[in-house]
Every structure is written in C-alpha cells, then in structure tokens.
Amino acid sequence: MKVEKLDVEMADISGSTFKDVNAQELNFDNVNLAKSHINNANMSGIVMNDINLSE
C-alpha cells in the first residue's frame, strides 16, 4: 500500500471512489457529502459537529 498525504482544497471530487483505503485522522471542513455511501467502515472515535443527517 502506497502512503500518501493529500491536501485537497476548492476541488470537486464528486463521483470519486475510495476502496481498500486506510483513511485515519482525516479532517473535513465545509464539505458536501450528500448522497455518499459508506459501507463496512470503522468509525470508532469519530467526532461530528453541526451535521445534517436528514433523509
């Protein structure tokens, strides 16, 4: 597995797919995750603030 840190800002990555990825300690600020799918994920210790989970 390749180790790489990404800084993505002001980008549209809609429709992207992440599979078999180690994505620990990520920070999302002002992100639209509408209609995203999360399957078989370890979310222990996750912190969420000001989140809209309707529908």
From TrEMBL:
- Please give the InterPro entries that the UniProt record associates with this protein: 5peptide_repeat
Checking Pfam families in the record gives:
Pentapeptide (PF00805)
Q: Which domain of life is it from?
A: Bacteria
The entry's protein name is: Pentapeptide repeat-containing protein
Q: What is the lineage of its organism?
A: Bacteria, Bacillati, Bacillota, Bacilli, Bacillales
